[in-house]
Specification:
Blueprint lengths: L9 H9 L5 E6 L4 E8 L2 E9 L5 H10 L7 H10 L5 H15 L7 E4 L21 H10 L4
Parallel strand pairs: 1-4
Antiparallel strand pairs: 1-2, 2-3
Length: 150
């Protein structure tokens, strides 16, 4: 979904991959805190992800959808997407990738790590989503009114 993941489009990734260094692991994040790491190793580009740093939070999801003018009905499918992605910190992912690089090519110097911010993202004002409490009195009154008399 381009609204929530503008930096995960082919155009954005193409732009980023053209300007990458051969000794850096890059991280980008989307509006849902789904992360993608990428690097170049021996003229090959590797994309690692999608990875999640945080567990699903319904309140945060509703706020994110509201900020971008999207319907709350997207929440269930996005929840499924988040649950399909491994829950791992950036530090852990970086160390796993560095270990793989060393095992494939022991003579390769250590890679630096760089998180990219604001890649093709239009920041919108934050909207705090809060569920309204339900007033059940009107429901009870209607029930009392509509229930059949004995």
């Amino acid at each position: 979904m381009k609204i929530l993941q503008p930096m995960f489009t082919a155009e954005a990734l193409g732009f980023l991959l053209e300007s990458t260094s051969d000794s850096t692991i890059y991280e980008i994040s989307d509006g849902l805190d789904i992360n993608l790491l990428f690097l170049n190793l021996k003229k090959n580009t590797f994309l690692v992800g999608s990875l999640c740093k945080n567990e699903f939070n319904d309140i945060k999801m509703q706020s994110t959808l509201a900020e971008r003018g999207l319907s709350a009905s997207y929440s269930a499918s996005l929840k499924a997407l988040l649950y399909c992605s491994p829950l791992i910190s950036s530090f852990q992912a970086q160390k796993i990738i560095e270990s793989c690089i060393i095992s494939f090519s022991p003579s390769t110097p250590l890679y630096s790590y760089r998180k990219l911010y604001g890649v093709m993202e239009n920041k919108k004002p934050s909207i705090k989503y809060q569920e309204d409490s339900i007033d059940y009195r009107s429901i009870v009154r209607r029930y009392d009114y509509e229930k059949p008399l004995p």
